[in-house]
Specification:
mainly alpha; DUF6979; 0% strand; 125 residues
């Protein structure tokens, strides 16, 4: 499991335990625990993936907030990948790349797959 997948699982835990913590705060706290690299902490793709899932109601036990800006390829791809994984639980990263026409190199697919494997991903209401 890559560092961003671990960070996503930690961030989800923080959101469940601390109802007052925002998804941004949870992500920042979790990613700081898994890497000391400043550039790794600032990577946009993994952060936007987690924030989109949290904001749009894809994470179990996390209320959708609809606070994040909803535009751009990263947001759309996070939703597309989550829906593909929920609809096809056995889908591989290479199949995700084929279906999304994007080869993930920053760990976004790993984030969504890890959340799904732990039973933390759901279709929003």
């Amino acid at each position: 499991m890559n560092k961003y997948a671990i960070a996503a699982l930690k961030a989800h835990h923080y959101l469940v335990v601390s109802k007052s913590m925002s998804p941004r705060e949870a992500w920042a706290t979790a990613v700081a625990e898994v890497t000391e690299s400043e550039s790794a902490r600032k990577k946009g793709c993994p952060k936007i993936t987690f924030l989109t899932l949290a904001d749009c109601g894809y994470l179990k036990n996390i209320e959708a907030r609809h606070e994040e800006k909803r535009r751009g390829k990263l947001h759309q791809r996070a939703i597309q990948v989550a829906n593909l994984i929920l609809d096809f639980p056995a889908i591989s990263k290479s199949e995700l790349a084929d279906k999304t026409c994007y080869k993930d190199s920053q760990g976004s697919y790993d984030i969504v797959l890890a959340l799904a494997q732990k039973g933390l991903l759901k279709h929003p209401k």
